[in-house]
Amino acid sequence: MTAPVEVLELVAQMKATERAFVLATVVRTVSVTAAKAGAKAIIAADGTIVAGWIGGGCARGAVLKAAREALADGEPRMVSVRPENLLAELGVVAGESRDGIRFASNMCPSKGTMDIFVEPVLPHPSLVILGASPVALSLAAQARVLSYHVTIAAPAADLSAQPDADAIIDGYRLGDLNDANRFVVVSTQGKGDEAALRAAIATRACYHAFVGSRRKMASLRAKLLAEGASAAAIDDFKAPAGLDLGAITPEEIAMSILAEITVERRRGQRAAHQSASRE
């Protein structure tokens, strides 16, 4: 059985628009099952099946649960839906994982077995850089090599050359950004610091950083607090940005920031791996 053309077309469209989703594929069936090997379904980030079909309620709950987990940790998984007597023969219970396979119970009268591969397809991590400083431009170029979706926001007059970025915003009004694991760095270095920080504060991200000294950040913090900004939001910023590598040049500073972002980005995946190894 081949996947319907509309499923494959939608996969391409969702990848192109940087949307998170799960592709679930039936890889094996035994006995009577509603869906057969090769059947596919696309599960959106909100948990709805937007295209395709992988069977009815016998498998749906287990697959949707696995899809949520896959979107959270970025890891694919195998789900095996089997009748209770076959689970008992294996010595496992519904919800248990063994050798990378999550087992679920098939309570339907058909009593068939379905193995479904659940594969998360996540947008590229998003790096939003506010400013047109040498550090900002170097950070954008290095991040692109590492497959980040890079947005640079800065007044057009501040850009002396075309930056290496996926998106360029004139000024600091960020508007709608792609839905992804997002990292925000303010690297204005004296040109529009306050405006850039106000925009960054209002932008949801798992990492906020300011390229500048602690003293400079403390001065800006006082000004922003006087304007009514949230103290907690301001204090969420890492300043100075980057790991302490003794960096001096713009390129080295950019590298130290990307190193720090990498630590933050992989933190959740390391936790997921450690949790899985204990199961």
UniProtKB/TrEMBL annotation:
<dbReference type="InterPro" id="IPR052698">
    <property type="entry name" value="MoCofactor_Util/Proc"/>
</dbReference>
<feature type="domain" description="XdhC- CoxI">
    <location>
        <begin position="16"/>
        <end position="80"/>
    </location>
</feature>
<dbReference type="InterPro" id="IPR003777">
    <property type="entry name" value="XdhC_CoxI"/>
</dbReference>
<protein>
    <submittedName>
        <fullName>XdhC family protein</fullName>
    </submittedName>
</protein>
<dbReference type="Pfam" id="PF13478">
    <property type="entry name" value="XdhC_C"/>
</dbReference>
<feature type="domain" description="XdhC Rossmann">
    <location>
        <begin position="127"/>
        <end position="261"/>
    </location>
</feature>
<dbReference type="InterPro" id="IPR027051">
    <property type="entry name" value="XdhC_Rossmann_dom"/>
</dbReference>
<dbReference type="Pfam" id="PF02625">
    <property type="entry name" value="XdhC_CoxI"/>
</dbReference>
